[in-house]
Specification:
By secondary structure, the protein is of the alpha+beta class. It is built from three helices and 13 strands. Helix 1 runs antiparallel to helix 2 and helix 2 runs antiparallel to helix 3. The longest helix is centred in the first third of the chain and has 31 residues.
């Protein structure tokens, strides 16, 4: 039988725990009860070892449950989009991960030429129909390596660039620009396969080999 002094201590501990966690017995409260029980046990009739071992096991289980709950809550906070005051801005947690291995059309001027010399599909976007002055492709150092002329009038919207018989480019990261006749730049897009993504940023970065893009700039997702 537990002495009255232990009962009183237990009641006080439970009341303190109620004030802190609305009736739930906390980790520190449970440990305090065990210590008080040991300090006030009857020397002639000590606490049963089996029962004490069971209480320690309960305490260990409590620690594991608390750690598990904290881990789940942290993961949930990471996975949920953060609120923003700007209606057009978007925030992301793990949303970029499912895109790995998929082809996406995204607003970018950066692309990578792989070891086999293959180019991703390059696009331009015009608000109104018009002609392009040309396409310029530069290497990672900003050096102009290709300059292509574009004939005819392009429709409004997104149009794939016909690279024609352009000479192959060495392996590396490049950028391209498309200028109109009035010297203004057309919007550029790249269709490429995602090889990786960052996690934990407000707007994760998508990786296309060594080239990079922004998740918020993705227009389409394809197989």
């Amino acid at each position: 039988m537990i002495p009255e002094s232990i009962r009183a201590s237990s009641i006080v501990t439970a009341e303190e725990s109620d004030a802190q966690s609305a009736g739930a017995l906390g980790q520190e409260d449970f440990l305090r009860m065990l210590i008080t029980q040991l300090e006030n046990q009857d020397p002639l009739n000590p606490q049963d070892a089996t029962e004490f071992t069971a209480q320690l096991a309960q305490f260990s289980s409590l620690e594991q449950l608390i750690a598990m709950r904290e881990g789940i809550e942290a993961l949930a906070e990471t996975s949920q989009p953060a609120a923003s005051d700007e209606p057009d801005s978007r925030t992301f947690g793990l949303e970029g991960v499912p895109l790995v291995g998929r082809s996406v059309l995204h607003e970018s001027s950066s692309f990578q030429v792989g070891a086999e010399g293959g180019l991703p599909d390059l696009f331009v976007e015009l608000v109104q129909p018009g002609a392009l002055q040309g396409i310029e492709i530069r290497d990672a150092n900003g050096t102009l390596v290709r300059q292509l002329g574009v004939t005819g009038t392009l429709p409004a919207g997104v149009t794939r660039i016909d690279l024609g018989e352009m000479d192959p480019l060495p392996t590396g990261v490049y950028s391209f620009t498309a200028s109109r006749g009035d010297q203004s730049l057309a919007n550029t897009l790249v269709l490429d396969r995602v090889t990786g993504s960052s996690i934990g940023e407000s707007d994760p970065t998508l990786f296309f080999g060594e080239a990079e893009g922004s998740l918020s700039r993705v227009r389409e997702v394809r197989p």
